[in-house]
Amino acid sequence: MNMIIGGLLFVVGVAVTIGSLAARGDVIVIAYGAIVVGAAQFLIGLFQASKGQAVGEGGLKRRLLLLAPFAVAMIVLVGIFVAPLSWEEERPIESAMIGQSVPDFDLPPGLPGRAGLASASLRRGEPHVVNIFASWCIPCRIEAPQLDMLKRRGIPIDGIAVRDRPQDLAQFLAAYGDPFRTIGADTDRRVQIALGSAGVPETFVIDGRGIIRHQHIGPIMDADLAEIVAAYEAARR
Amino acid sequence: MRLLLAALMLAFAAPALADSLLPPAEYADRQLADPAKEAEARALMDEIRCLVCQGEAVADSPAEMAGDMRALIRTRIQAGESPDQVRQWLISRYGPWVTYDPPFGAATALLWLAPLLLVLFGLFLARGRFKRRTRA
To answer: Which residues contact A113 (CB under 8 A, 6 or more apart)?
Structure first.
């Protein structure tokens, strides 16, 4: 009995794994569970068979004993299904570009009369704080006072405006303050993706040689200021 | 009257969407002219994870960022890059997590080899069983 269930689960697990390798990674977790549980069932069944036991023989106690591993297996399987539901939420995606040289780009100004942002200017010996933001991004409003505080500490901030229009940008800066030395317009989000940034706002600290040293995901809160300043000071050395 | 006003205000309220006011990227939902390249791009889109919706592939997601990534995949493939080059480029940005088809590496070795190892183990066990039976 155990061997049959185990064998079936195992075969299903292997089949799902092979199928899902070509499709979705998340299914693999479930398939893994089935394989592990199936293999365990198979081994238990084998062990019992080798001792000459079989379902149907013996009393209630032995039957319950035979069912126990299956019950445990079911609980494990349900756990494997349910647990990822809570994992999947809000997982910050770190850039794999930290420690790498900033990719080449040359963004036109986001507003007429302002300076745009090119990667060449990030390699001229001075560290940079590059803030990726957008006028349509609500959390970007939250970090405006903190950006202003950085600016008043003498840390210049270079902006990359993602998918923005000049008129919206002008309104946003008028309403929430304008701490930016330069504003590059990343209209098709190509530079944001090239930097390994998955959302707005995000802030990168880049050293004088153009190496990305630090990434801050989400709005900069008061508590994050020290971390940004420290990364900037470290990038100076 | 007040109710009507409230309903009107709700009807015209701007939804707090995390999307920009710009139109979607040109190749977000437009197919490439070359059907072979479009098929390559489509296959890759099915394997790249949407960054803002995490459980979905870029091909299935209505999110604006997913559209931008579809456009990026299509433009790069149209420019002559292979799907694998584009995949590697994205992995170098977001890590192996970004693809649903994880490359073979130290972290994924078990994932790829487990079925094979378990089948071999099963065959080994079965062989022992059959041997004993023929002897008896």
So the answer is: none
**CB environment A99-127: b (16+ within 10 A), e (fewer):** eeebbebebebbbeebebbebeebbeeeb
Largest CA distance in chain A: 90
Q: Which of the listed ranges A71-80, A219-228, B115-124 does the model predict with the highest average pLDDT?
A: A219-228
Question: Using beta carbons and an 8 Å cutoff, which residues of B are at the interface with A?
Answer: 16, 18-22, 25, 46, 51-52, 54-55, 57, 64-65, 68-69, 71-72, 91-95, 97, 100-102, 111-112, 114-115, 118-119, 121-122, 125, 129
Q: Does A236 touch chain B (CB under 8 A)?
A: no
Mean pLDDT, residues A149-164 taken together = 95
Average pLDDT of the residues in A77-85: 72
**Could you tell me the two tokens for B63?**
């999110």
Cβ pair A161, A183 in contact under 8 A: yes
C-alpha to C-alpha distance for B20 and B30, rounded to whole angstroms: 19
pLDDT at residue B11, as a whole number? 52
Paired strand residues for B49: B57
The confidence score (pLDDT) of residue A179 equals 95
Sign of torsion, CA A192 A193 A196 A199? positive
Beta carbons of B22 and A97 less than 8 Å apart: no
Q: Given a cut of 90, is residue A202 above it in pLDDT?
A: yes
Percent of chain A with pLDDT over 90: 59
Where do we find the tokens 């036991």? A53
**Residue B101 to chain A, least CA–CA distance (Å):** 6
ipTM of the prediction: 0.72
Please state, in angstroms and rounded to a whole number, the distance separating the CA atoms of residues B34 and B39: 9
Sheet with A202-206: strands ordered across: A180-186, A157-162, A128-133, A202-206, A212-217
In angstroms, the CA A7 to CA A106 distance is 59
Are A97 and B93 within 8 A, CB to CB?
yes
